[in-house]
Design brief:
Elements lengths: L1 H39 L8 H6 L3 H13 L9 H5 L9 H18 L12 H25 L24 H6 L17 H16 L3 H20 L5 H21 L23 H11 L13 E3 L2 E3 L2 H13 L1
Antiparallel strand pairs: 1-2
Helix pairs in contact: 1-6, 1-11, 3-6, 5-8, 5-9, 6-8, 6-10, 8-9, 8-10
């Protein structure tokens, strides 16, 4: 039993090492896209403390902080969702955040599953390049939208009478750039249309819909997206229009960019055996060998030839078998 565990542990460790080498090579070629996406999308106001640690996405958070200075509290607008869904209350607003955090962390875990599991359909770095492209485009549109018209925030800390509903003019540029960390990052107002929670959720669900393998998880993902939409409205964090606009905008953005971006290689098919891991020529041989190791293939090209077993001997060419059989019949 211990021998079996040791052997499996050794295989797992080799798989992790080989996968890490492959992803590092991909990251070396795509780090500019990853870094650019992370810098653009900083939204610690909308993300929980856990997600803030992993995604220091700055520019979007800076824009959301800026619109808070323009926010003017007022009566909550008439909203169909508010009329249909009972208000959860401030003490239950954590429910939507908890569900969103679960979706976020689950997606991260899934994107790193090739490091451990044998089923390897995706490359982690390439998936995140694609995801960040969707997020950047969606949140760029979001910034344009919430700066076009500032609505009175329906959230509890954005209503009339709250000290956090309006911000005094900044005293220095440093105050703006630091976004009054950490309080200014968790109590924003004015960045309403459209919901950033739904941007992340829908991008994750759509990505798994295309590259995931479990049908039940795909169906669960869409169900969670619908439930989260209702919870956001019931928590009065967004108007119904914020959620509705997010649903069709994110889907259209993903549909459009998905046609423009190069398709991800499918690692489960035989056509990916010789897939180049880099566009650069240097170290191409080492990377090719690592890729073959990841897919369980031999490093020797001679091993790809068709082999046939005859009388206990393995021949490399089926034609030799025919010739040998003819010679035996003639004898």
């Amino acid at each position: 039993m211990s021998l079996y565990i040791g052997r499996e542990a050794s295989k797992l460790w080799k798989r992790i090492c080989a996968e890490t080498t492959t992803e590092i090579n991909l990251l070396a070629d795509n780090w500019k896209y990853i870094l650019g996406g992370l810098i653009f999308q900083f939204d610690a106001y909308l993300l929980t403390s856990v997600t803030r640690v992993f995604f220091p996405q700055y520019i979007h958070g800076l824009a959301a902080r800026g619109v808070h200075y323009l926010h003017r509290p007022g009566p909550i607008l008439q909203d169909a969702g508010f009329f249909l869904l009972p208000e959860l209350g401030q003490d239950k607003s954590y429910i939507s955040e908890t569900l969103f955090t679960s979706v976020f962390l689950s997606f991260i875990v899934w994107t790193f599953h090739p490091f451990i599991l044998k089923s390897k359909k995706i490359y982690t770095v390439l998936v995140w390049c694609r995801v960040l492209a969707f997020l950047v485009a969606s949140q760029f549109l979001r910034i344009i939208t919430f700066y076009s018209t500032q609505l009175p925030g329906p959230n509890y800390h954005c209503r009339e009478g709250s000290k956090l509903a309006r911000l005094p003019h900044p005293q220095s540029l440093v105050e703006v750039l630091l976004m009054n960390f950490p309080r200014g990052m968790t109590h924003g107002c004015g960045d309403l249309i459209f919901s950033s929670h739904m941007i992340f959720t829908l991008v994750f669900v759509l990505t798994y819909q295309k590259y995931g393998t479990k049908r039940c998880i795909k169906q669960l993902g869409w169900l969670i997206a619908v439930v989260l939409s209702l919870l956001i409205i019931a928590s009065r964090k967004h108007y119904t229009v914020d959620v509705v606009v997010a649903w069709y905008t994110v889907n259209l953005v993903v549909f459009f960019l998905d046609k423009k971006l190069p398709e991800l290689p499918d690692r489960t098919g035989s056509a990916s055996l010789l897939l180049p891991l880099s566009t650069k020529d240097k170290d191409s041989k080492t990377r090719e060998e690592n890729h073959k190791l990841l897919n369980g293939n031999s490093l020797d090209p001679a091993d790809w030839r068709q082999r046939t077993q005859v009388n206990g001997k393995i021949l490399d060419d089926a034609n030799l078998v025919h010739a040998d059989a003819t010679a035996m019949n003639g004898a």
